[in-house]
Amino acid sequence: MKTNTYKSKIATALLEKGFMTDKQLDTIEEYQKLGVFSLHTELRLLLYLSVLLFTSGIGILIYQNIDSIGHDVIIVCLFLLIAVSLYFCFKKAKGFHKEEVAFDNTIYDYLVLLIAILSCIFIGYLQFQYTLFGENYGIATLVPTIISFCYAYYFDNKSVLSIAVSGLAACIGLTVTPQKVLDTEFYSNDTLAFSAIGLGLLLILWTMYSSKSKLKIHFNLLYLTFALHLICIATISKISEKEVPLYFLFALLLGGASYYFYKMSKEHNAVSLFVFALLYGYVGLNVLLFKVIDVIDFNGFWELLMYLLPAYFIGSIILFIQSVKKFNQQKNN
């Protein structure tokens, strides 16, 4: 209902500026009253799920029948499936362009996603079964990552780009999964945390280069999202772990990162960047405050703090909700 009201206001404003006639406005209002909605999003979700289910089904089928099928047959079938799919995608693709391009038919985007997943499976299978790259598993991870980047940029596919960036993180030994975050992987490994921060900064530098060279600028939001999570999670873990004065340095890095991503959220009109920039900054600030309070011995302060905490958190939630609402209003305007 709110969406229809908002669209009616836009149509009225266009009428007042002379961009449409009264008859056109009446037609638009009659159409809105029909309550027609698009199934585009639902169909895209079903296509995405079909790709995941298909690749999962292939994996289960191979696992259950590996002895009767044979490794060579599996590899040949995977190669043929990838080759045939690539043929159709190249045939329908518009070629590489710096700006955003799309297939005439959306189904080919999901076919590219299928190709990327199968390519990763194919190379991983060769490495596992025949040790194609010897004992160097870093190269075995880097090769499908590079291939995924090529697919993503040539076919202009954000889903494949997500696979490529995840592969890039895996190359430095980082597994970007909720389970690894819960297992506090960063806390026990300084090198891994610094690598995550370095990769995040590298992704930011790439977005700057892309913006300057006008190379697939619409990919920048995805790069910034990965960079945001990598840098902020790693710095928060180091703030929690390190002693004075090291955690102050990480706190400054987190503050600078939160401010940068806050600015980027405004520039890209991205609610996701805005929300997570606030959340990570808020979490980091609270961790820092509690560490400072723990170091400085305030007699009786903890008792007072226990009374103030409920009001503090409720106030924080209210301010957070108001900030998001204000951001959405500015975005719509």
From TrEMBL:
InterPro entries documented for this protein: DUF2157 (IPR018677)
Domain DUF2157 intervals: 14-160
Presence of keyword Ubl conjugation: no
Membrane-traversing stretches: 45-63, 69-90, 110-130, 136-154, 161-179, 191-209, 221-239, 245-262, 274-293, 305-324
Lineage per the UniProt record: Bacteria, Pseudomonadati, Bacteroidota, Flavobacteriia, Flavobacteriales
Signal peptide: none
Keywords from the named record: Membrane, Transmembrane, Transmembrane helix
UniProt source species: Flavobacterium polysaccharolyticum
Domain of life: Bacteria
Protein name per the record: DUF2157 domain-containing protein
